């Protein structure tokens, strides 16, 4: 009997990907045969980076991880899980506040599709304060984000804030 491949999805906005995200990606990639990092295309938000830019930054930052695939989606996560033949959602937890929110989402996903499990991974304590919003705030004032994001993201942030789009 052949062993079924374990496929997990780590969904998020990743606007931009931080070292906290990378910590979860690296650790989750060791737990599953395949980890799909799925960028949510949320039309109700105005992200700094486009979905394609976020996918490129993630691809570059995860290029050393052979079993990580970068993708995007705009559907319900449970529908995306079925489409990708994945059975586990990976979520990073920084705090009790994160846990309360994530528990509500996990319960909703379980209600929508009882075949899908959610696992929570505690973020490394050295990244517990870190969020994409904090990174963007620091970068917008030309602060040093080199310890907070992968090198390619640091360059992309610098480029975004040094060359803002012109308004017509």
TrEMBL record:
<keyword id="KW-0963">Cytoplasm</keyword>
<comment type="function">
    <text>Reversibly transfers an adenylyl group from ATP to 4'-phosphopantetheine, yielding dephospho-CoA (dPCoA) and pyrophosphate.</text>
</comment>
<keyword id="KW-0067">ATP-binding</keyword>
<comment type="subunit">
    <text>Homohexamer.</text>
</comment>
<dbReference type="InterPro" id="IPR004821">
    <property type="entry name" value="Cyt_trans-like"/>
</dbReference>
<feature type="site" description="Transition state stabilizer">
    <location>
        <position position="21"/>
    </location>
</feature>
<feature type="binding site">
    <location>
        <position position="21"/>
    </location>
    <ligand>
        <name>ATP</name>
    </ligand>
</feature>
<dbReference type="Pfam" id="PF01467">
    <property type="entry name" value="CTP_transf_like"/>
</dbReference>
<protein>
    <recommendedName>
        <fullName>Phosphopantetheine adenylyltransferase</fullName>
        <ecNumber>2.7.7.3</ecNumber>
    </recommendedName>
</protein>
<feature type="binding site">
    <location>
        <position position="102"/>
    </location>
    <ligand>
        <name>ATP</name>
    </ligand>
</feature>
<feature type="binding site">
    <location>
        <position position="13"/>
    </location>
    <ligand>
        <name>substrate</name>
    </ligand>
</feature>
<feature type="binding site">
    <location>
        <position position="91"/>
    </location>
    <ligand>
        <name>substrate</name>
    </ligand>
</feature>
<keyword id="KW-0547">Nucleotide-binding</keyword>
<keyword id="KW-0173">Coenzyme A biosynthesis</keyword>
<dbReference type="GO" id="GO:0016779">
    <property type="term" value="F:nucleotidyltransferase activity"/>
</dbReference>
<feature type="binding site">
    <location>
        <begin position="127"/>
        <end position="133"/>
    </location>
    <ligand>
        <name>ATP</name>
    </ligand>
</feature>
<feature type="binding site">
    <location>
        <begin position="92"/>
        <end position="94"/>
    </location>
    <ligand>
        <name>ATP</name>
    </ligand>
</feature>
<keyword id="KW-0548">Nucleotidyltransferase</keyword>
<feature type="binding site">
    <location>
        <position position="77"/>
    </location>
    <ligand>
        <name>substrate</name>
    </ligand>
</feature>
<dbReference type="InterPro" id="IPR001980">
    <property type="entry name" value="PPAT"/>
</dbReference>
<feature type="binding site">
    <location>
        <begin position="13"/>
        <end position="14"/>
    </location>
    <ligand>
        <name>ATP</name>
    </ligand>
</feature>
<keyword id="KW-0460">Magnesium</keyword>
<feature type="domain" description="Cytidyltransferase-like">
    <location>
        <begin position="9"/>
        <end position="137"/>
    </location>
</feature>
<feature type="binding site">
    <location>
        <position position="45"/>
    </location>
    <ligand>
        <name>substrate</name>
    </ligand>
</feature>
<comment type="pathway">
    <text>Cofactor biosynthesis; coenzyme A biosynthesis; CoA from (R)-pantothenate: step 4/5.</text>
</comment>
<comment type="similarity">
    <text>Belongs to the bacterial CoaD family.</text>
</comment>
<keyword id="KW-0808">Transferase</keyword>
<dbReference type="InterPro" id="IPR014729">
    <property type="entry name" value="Rossmann-like_a/b/a_fold"/>
</dbReference>
């Amino acid at each position: 009997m052949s062993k079924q491949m374990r496929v997990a999805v780590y969904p998020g906005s990743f606007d931009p990907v931080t070292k906290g995200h990378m910590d979860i990606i690296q650790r989750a990639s060791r737990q599953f045969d395949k980890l799909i990092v799925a960028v949510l295309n949320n039309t109700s938000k105005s992200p700094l980076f486009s979905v394609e830019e976020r996918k490129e930054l993630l691809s570059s930052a995860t290029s050393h991880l052979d079993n990580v695939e970068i993708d995007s989606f705009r559907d319900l996560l449970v529908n995306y899980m079925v489409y990708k033949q994945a059975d586990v959602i990976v979520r990073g937890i920084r705090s009790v506040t994160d846990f309360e929110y994530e528990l509500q989402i996990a319960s909703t996903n379980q209600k929508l599709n009882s075949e899908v499990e959610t696992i929570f991974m505690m973020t490394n304590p050295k990244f517990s304060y870190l969020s994409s919003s904090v990174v963007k705030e620091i970068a917008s004032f030309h602060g040093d984000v080199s310890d907070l994001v992968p090198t390619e993201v640091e360059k992309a942030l610098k480029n975004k804030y040094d060359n803002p789009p012109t308004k017509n």
